[in-house]
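dude i think i finally got it to work??
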Amino acid sequence: MPKTNAPPKYFYIILIALPILFFVLLELGLRIFGYGFNNEQWDTAQEGSSIIMLNQEVAKRYFYTTKRIPISNQDVFDAEKKSIAFRVFVLGGSSAAGYPFSPLGSFSRYVRDRLKLSYPLSKIEVVNISMTAVNSYTVRDLFPGVLEQKPDLILIYAGHNEYYGALGVGSMESLGTSRKMVNLLLYLNRFKIVELLRNTIQWVMELFSGNEEKQSGTLMSRMAKDQYIKFDTETFNDGISQFEGNIRDILDMAKERNVPVILSTLVSNLKDQPPFISIESKNFPPADKIYNQAKYELNSGNYRIADSLFRFAKDLDGLRFRAPEKINQTIISLSREYKLPLVNLDSAFSAISPYGIIGNNLMTDHLHPTLKGYQLLGKLFFEKMEQSNFLPASELANLSGDEQDRITMVNFNFTELDSTIGDYRIKLLKNDWPFVTEGKKVPNSTLLHPDNVTDSIAAHVLEDIITWEEAHRKMATYYLGRKNINAFLKEMDALISQYPIVVEYYDYVANILIPLKDYVKAYKYLMIGYDIKPSAFRAKWLGTLNLYKDNLELAEKYLNESLTIDTKDSQAWYNLAGVYVKKNNYKKALENVNNALMLNPNYAEAIGLKKQLESAMNNRN
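look at this
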């Protein structure tokens, strides 16, 4: 047979290069035309701003079939870290986010407020990027992006959602039990081609199934998908391995970048939360039987035995909404292995609980602390930061630890509306599976029956009629209409605490306080707003209030700055004239009065001042 010539080498190169080129061009095309969602980790907090926050669409990386994705508490920080900044990141699930009292009730708010009080010379940035229904896969995926933001410290409170949280071994969003494969897929999610493939598969599945996502119940209850997991089975141990492997990766990354991390053990409601699901097993007794034994030992005064049995009953619970004891053991073991500071929250909560057993005294439900519990966790994290020499290098305010804690608690921005929203969230949670069966549910309208304005506004938040921000604005308007200025200020302070870069809030409060002649408070709001972003309005009133206090140099500075921004403000010209009157510079005062009158010829005060100045200048001559 005649010998055929082999194809040239460049033929094979082209053969390999063509599909690669196709996918590269497809990826570029999808990006250019803005296909899909914004899968970047960070996003600007305001258009044209240099302030950034966690992208509120980032959870779409982890939720493939769930339509309503969780978002973070929207904490903001500078894109370029300032030299005086002390930056702390907080990572975890719903407990780390502060549910049901989020955003203001999270332990990170206590940490932030106490740091600001104790280190006034530092720019404090405590950025909580925790989200509901996520687990260590999400924390691991976001961690490299956190390290890129040059954190001074990272706090982690995570572990309850390992089984049913996004991509967990028991979740409806699971991608399997291979940790390497799941993390590889999470990395590939950054590419638009993968998103296109995901969306295509989802479209085909919906086309054939015809089923729409059930929206009732909490996100975690929907993620569980009725999947029960027996104690000490392969799936149970896969969850432990998943958590340990992901946290180990996280700690290795932090160690490589020399970024300190503080871990915390987890707390659960042991005494007052019966097991959700009892499963018969050859190797272990049913969870409810052990729970009843624990109650018997508690009533008999055998508190240590009761505590051990309550913990065992929790571990035997077939519905893994509470982290098993093995998760806490893993956290303690990793903290020792990596020589990390550890907040033993489980021990601390037990120490102040009746009989030394955690129950409703510090827990709102099965695993979320009360507001008091979250504040205690914040205090413990702060004290561990202090003990570990992780705190800022700037000069410490001259306050004892007890005084810092007292002032932080007194000024904690958390209103009656926030408390009511939290209570309603728990009512709705406990009115659904797994707390009650479908036939025993009470209509939500009964649970959210409003008795007053606060109840009504809180109910609208839970019914998605208004946002949390709109709710606080409504409450502020309500109090203002009734001339309850203290309550009005508390609502506005809550808004400012949550959205500190919205300068319009500072202006609004100042506009209310100035006519009431509460100049001290007005000055405080104006100054904070001015530091964020100078404006003609803020500079004018800072100058005017300094004029009232005879701080003439500051008054002149701010009023001139205001007029540089807006030359058509007759009041600013008039007030600047007042500065020069007090400086006995009548000529310059007259020039500024004339500027005011050119803009507003009927300005009565300016007309009067002009006559006085002209008379005084004539008398001098």
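The beta strands are 42-44, 51-54, 76-78, 85-92, 123-128, 153-157, 261-264, 342-343.
im so relieved honestly
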